[in-house]
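To the team - pyridoxal-5'-phosphate complex, inputs and output below.
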Amino acid sequence: MKPNPSLPSADFYDHQPIRDQFPTLKQTIGDHPLCYLDTAATSQKPQAVIDAMTEYYQLNNANVHRAAHQLSTRATQQYEAVRQQVAHFIHAKHQQEIIFTHGTTESINMVAYGLTAQVQPNDLILIDTAAHHANIVPWQELAKRTGAIIKPIPLTADAQLDINAYEQLLQAKPTLVALCHVSNALGTVNPIIDLIAMAKNAGALTLVDGAQAVAHLEIDVQQMDCDFYVFSGHKMYGPTGVGILYGRFEQLNTLTPMLTGGEMIKTVSFDRTEYGELPNRLEAGTPAIAEVIGLGAAITFLQGLPREQIKAHEQLLMRYLQQQLLNLGDITLYGVSNDNSQSNIGSVAFNVANEHHQDVGILLDQQAVAIRCGHHCAMPLMSQLKLSGCCRASIGIYTNKHDIDQFIHALNTVKELLL
Ligand SMILES: Cc1ncc(COP(=O)(O)O)c(C=O)c1O
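Output:
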């Protein structure tokens, strides 16, 4: 991608009424308005999410499923209504295919643990080189338990998944392919439907990490035809502490539960325990009830937005952000396709000349600009890029052109200080 000073700075969607719903963004730090460009780490929360959780604690606080009193009935109804909502949101076939977890990390661990009995020594597991550690380490643990072999799917020189190399690897008939939908470090987007179709042709199970996709893209797990799709509430304007494991019913039903105990059983005696049906068999213990209700409010919030306009706005912002960075000079962008054929989603990764990413982050913070610096929980990707780390600026539905301008102005000051 080349610098282009003539890129449009107008035509952004006027979404001030949406931004106004995020109380955190109304603050100043020092003399500067907060410029939050760390949405890929966690998004800010709209008032509707905060209110839904407060209302649960103020009016309906009770445990779900077990008691025969009205508070519990209300809490259970709200909790189960969110399951239905999530199923609808990602176009799952049955609501029993939606398991509430504590986040993407737990969801992947549940699948990796749950498959232990089905994986044999020398079975092959393919993992996207751009994967987050949450989509690497649980598979390594599975390999330790079973004797399976892990191979990374290589990337091309511009950090896109290498389809030819993938095709070659699939000839060895892997048992499972673990992909990311959108890379958290670079914002690159995988052609997920094609990748899954190729894996299925080779007879592999597929798990897609959608943590960075679900807030930006319409997700249709049936169209995607994946076996598992996982994401976290806190990256889609919902609370921390709740996530989703979607699984095709037949696949979920064969997973060995990672957690056992109350809620997930049909009968228990000291001789024998019989597990309950899905989804309960994979939801042992008291769930994160308020957080699930908050997630439901986040989905309602997202569904009430003009998604196409927001998508166009985010795409324009991303291009503006990339171009403004390049126009600044002394900036290297990572994971941007050379011919501009692939657009990134949500995140832009960069470094300033040879300066340490952490120094850049600290100096930006002094100007109230929040970005993330480091390896972004993607050390194999960083080593492929021959980097110890980089800076990442990431946007959300509340980000506006002023944020980008404030960031670029602050980065220019950092450059003047450092170079
Ligand atoms: C692509 C991706 N996968 C997994 C995770 C882990 O998510 P969580 O910490 O919510 O479990 C993240 C978080 O940054 C992510 O971006």
